[in-house]
Amino acid sequence: MLVGYMRVSSDSDRQTTDLQRDALMAAGVDSRHLFEDHASGAQDDRPGLSKALAFVHPGDVLVVWKLDRLGRSLSHLLSIVNELKENQVAFRSLTEGMDTTTPSGELLFHVFGALAQYERALTKERVVAGLAAAKRRGRIGGRPPVIVGEKLEAITLALKGGMSKAAVCRNFGVKRTTLIETLARIGWPTSQQK
Q1: Where are the domains of the chain?
Q2: 125-153 burial, b if ≥16 CB within 10 A, otherwise e?
Q3: Residue 40 among the catalytic residues
Q4: What is the pTM of this model?
């Protein structure tokens, strides 16, 4: 059975699913098996998509007019299509000609998967490079320190004076993890961090 999914970004009068509906019905989707959303693709809560995914059964084909109607990003799209595959449901996008019931459509899907993996690797590489560049300039990433100024001086004096970390946390009203992170940030000797 062919099951159709349509989405437009908003409920405004200018955006309707008419074009998508016509294309899906022309492709053989029964009007009783159409699901739609009027929501941004970036939104997690899309009831029409949830209903469509719950409706499909093994052997069915989920059909969309265009890939961007289904997923909010390449990785999200791949996640949905992989979920469909696990449930033995095929996927077809009319505009891009992707059809996982055919060998060429399956190949195209795997190419998309490789591209998504490549995109994730590039993003990770850029983040690591950016953090290294910031570190070379003396900037440390992460949240701003919680313990600073006079409070930090008082804490370090207390620790040097032999006060335990538990006592410091109680007396100065700081969490142990915050204290440990702050000491590591200022280069407190690890032998004194226990």
Answers
A1: 2-103, 132-194
A2: eeeeeeeeeeeeeeeeeeeeeebeeeebe
A3: no
A4: 0.59
